[in-house]
Amino acid sequence: MATRLDEIRKLRLAKLDKLKALDINPFPTGFSIAKINIAQALNSLDEEISVAGRIWKLREHGNVIFMDLRDASGQIQLLFQKKVLVDKFKILKLLDMGDFLGVKGKVVKTQAGEITIDVNYFEILGKSLRPIPDDWSGLKDTEERYRKRYLDLLLDSEIKNKFKIRSTILRETRNYLDSQGFVEVETPIFHPLYGGANAKPFISHMNALDTDFYLRIAFELYLKRLVVGGYEKVYEIGRDFRNEGIDHSHSPEFTMMEWYESYTDYHGVMDRTEGLIKHLANKIYGKAQMQVDEHKIDISKKWPRVCMTDLLIERLELDVEKLSLDDLIKYAIENKIEVVKGVSKGQLIFDIFDKKISKTLIEPIFVIDYPQEVSPLSKPHRSKSGWVERFEGYIGGREICDGWSELTDPLVQRERFEMDTKAARSDKDEAQQVDEDFLEAMEYGMPPIGGIGIGMDRLTMFFTNTWSIKEVILFPTLRPEK
């Protein structure tokens, strides 16, 4: 049984045939006249101009037809008069909302005071065979919005603005790092071993080499190879892939930025990170302020740096350095925090912090000094055994970044890899592997390094106050439709 959409499409196909019968190409290579954008046209009263765009609305009044035309810069009303266009006027009956049109005419102001182009010439630039939902009804189904993002962008200017902000974040992150003397590079997506993070990889087979490869889960180990090769300040922005769950803050395919700087530590990385976030806020909002959930947060002041152990004492009265693993397990169970089989003390300390404290960190803060067990690539703390020089940044109760003083001792790195591989816990399949090629590179010598990874999707969520990652990825991963 034919649907209403089928009927509309059938009518539009008939119009397409009529245009072709009139020897009109409904899909030309371009507009034959030099044009300006609609925003410029709106400021060109009494001038003869040409514009092109998509028809948004049509209103027929006998021998006069009004249309609204949109391009990326704005919308303007068009006036078509039969007495001006004569025989070409009848062609307008073959146009529909969604068609692309190029027009020439004088910019006038109607009696109602609306800026309008009095059209004396037009060209059809593209025929739409499916009806675009109107502004009022739009796309109500969330999944349909993701699957048909092109319509979502056409119908909702706020959605389009989110992706404009995303573009600004990517551009200004590059500008900020470039201005600080960093060099942008590209490293492989196919990895013979996965590493640089604790995550489940995707596996792919390369026919040319008859070899299985992993889609990268992080850039880290290749960027550090470049540090060995003499790059003192290096970064990459690109796609990572993790074969894990999909939820409001995680996607299997996502955009990351990592940078590594020689001759600095995690305090130096925190300085640059704070500078980056403030730089982005000023470029996006014109001020060093952010809206996170219902919180209006001033990020202009110096962000405090507080040890995780101090926060646990201050907020929970837990001196975790003095408590045993059994004491922490008891606390976790009493507070309904999941305890996985074989959990280490360091992992449990982090879990307690994450579940009980992280969401309360509203004002900007760097939480520093993490358990070694949850940070296999971080440098051992210079004064606290069993801890590493790692930090996470929090704003509005949400993590915004994760960085550390990088481990540069190849012998200790080997121990960490082996410890992680042998970890007897339920997420063992996420443990990093012993990467002999990377360890060999380290043995040629590495300077002190500070590094960080920031999810660019997560950063866009922060700067648009949007807390579903699918809303800030143009085409999020979805189950294919049958």
Short description:
The protein is of the alpha+beta class and 482 residues long. It has helices at residues 4-21, 38-41, 82-85, 142-147, 149-155, 157-179, 220-228, 266-285, 308-316, 325-334, 345-356, 410-421, 436-443, 456-464, and strands at residues 48-61, 64-71, 74-81, 100-109, 115-126, 183-184, 190-191, 203-206, 211-215, 233-241, 253-262, 289-292, 295-298, 305-307, 365-371, 387-395, 398-405, 449-455.
Total domain modules: 2
Number of strands: 18
**Structure class:** alpha+beta
Rough outline: elongated
Separation of termini? Answer: 19 Å
Q: What would CATH call the homologous superfamily of the largest domain?
A: Bira Bifunctional Protein, Domain 2
Unreliable stretches (pLDDT < 50, length at least 5) are: none
Rg computed from alpha carbons, rounded to a whole number of angstroms: 29 Å
Largest sheet, in brief, is: 8 strands, mixed
Report strand %. Answer: 25-35%
- Which CATH class of the largest domain? Alpha Beta
CATH fold naming of the largest domain: BirA Bifunctional Protein, domain 2
Proportion in helices: 25-40%
CATH architecture annotation of the largest domain: 2-Layer Sandwich
Spatial sequence of strands, sheet with the most strands = 6-10-11-18-17-16-15-14
**Continuous helix count:** 14
| Rounded mean pLDDT score | 93
